Amino acid sequence: MTKQMARHRLALIGGGNMGSALVGGLLAAGWKPADIAVVERLPGRAAQLGGLFPGVTVSGEMVRADGVVIAVKPYDVAAAANLVAAAGATRVLSIAAGISLATLSTGFGDGVAVVRGMPNTAALVGKGAAAIAAGPSSTEADLVWAEEILGAVGTVTRVTEAQLDAVTVLSGSGPAYLSLVTEALIDAGVLAGLPRGVSEAMVGQVFIGYAALFVESGRDPVALRAEVTSPGGVTAAALRVLEGHGLRSAFLEAVMAGTERSRELGQTGVEVRGA
Ligand SMILES: NC(=O)C1=CN([C@@H]2O[C@H](COP(=O)(O)OP(=O)(O)OC[C@H]3O[C@@H](n4cnc5c(N)ncnc54)[C@H](OP(=O)(O)O)[C@@H]3O)[C@@H](O)[C@H]2O)C=CC1
Ligand SMILES: O=C(O)[C@@H]1CCC=N1
């Protein structure tokens, strides 16, 4: 089956959360469906992807492709990497957390340029915050290629591989922290007497409004906080409690713990061998 298939511009191994977000973004950015293939081993998921993305090749087996995106969980990277040689690809973008460029590059060998990237789930709505790091043999053209792919679903920043651990825990994991804050604020609104639906709507709009104030207006968060905090007022009373419970320090410690964990995963590594 694989042999009869056309050569694709891009094959994504793994059509889960991130893989499907990337396909959606690339199509929205004007890529032709026929240029894209998704290799997905779960038959139910593959059928779903076929319905979502008409014209995109969805296959349980590897296809021929110029470039490959590895979008499987870190423990599945070794198996996915074995498929890269079968694709005949010269470029690989891996978005797997904690799998180092050294591990990837050694596995694929010469002739395959590797770029490591870290997106986040906001890619699902085209508002991702991704970063990329160049592998030992990747060129400017390889980085531009990776930027084109991740840029279809949000922003892309170039960093060193060492900085990618901090990016992973800050923006990669970021939606999880904001989910926790969202849940807590909604519950707090209910505790203070609001119906849950009203509390949810208020909290959602606060996030949207704050994103516009901070990102779109480019204003300093210290100034944004100061202008809400009236002397002897409501906000000052609430902030005192958050500071008293160490919220700021909790975020600092959390990000350092996650960065450490990302480094650990990178050192443990996985056996990656191109077939
Ligand atoms: N989710 C997130 O917030 C982020 C994730 N990442 C990284 O992105 C990668 C993908 O994450 P995510 O999209 O959430 O994962 P998902 O589990 O949603 O998607 C991966 C999919 O790939 C399938 N799969 C696994 N191995 C193969 C294979 N050899 N051939 C074909 N299909 C395969 C899986 O099937 P099965 O279910 O059978 O395993 C699954 O359907 C991870 O490495 C993660 O570290 C990066 C940034 C953020
Ligand atoms: O938790 C994880 O390991 C991955 C990395 C970033 C988001 N999810």
Class by alpha and beta content: alpha/beta
- Care to count the β-strands? 8
SS element count, helices = 11
CATH class of the largest domain: Alpha Beta
Largest sheet report? 8 strands, mixed
User: Whole-Å distance between the termini?
Assistant: 19 Å
What name goes with the CATH superfamily of the largest domain? NAD(P)-binding Rossmann-like Domain
Order of helices and strands: EHEHEEHEHEEHEHHHHHH
Low-confidence stretches: none
Give the strand order of the largest sheet, numbering strands 1, 2, ... along the chain: 3-2-1-4-5-6-7-8
What oligomeric state do these chains adopt?
Answer: single chain
Q: Could you tell me the strand content as a percent range?
A: 5-15%
CATH level-3 fold name of the largest domain:
Rossmann fold
The CATH architecture term of the largest domain is: 3-Layer(aba) Sandwich
Cα-based radius of gyration, to the nearest Å:
21 Å
**Any ligands, ions or cofactors bound here, and which?**
NADPH dihydro-nicotinamide-adenine-dinucleotide phosphate, (2S)-3,4-dihydro-2H-pyrrole-2-carboxylic acid
Keywords: Amino-acid biosynthesis, Cytoplasm, NADP, Oxidoreductase, Proline biosynthesis
GO molecular function: pyrroline-5-carboxylate reductase activity
Domain Pyrroline-5-carboxylate reductase dimerisation: 161-265
Pfam family, one: P5CR_dimer
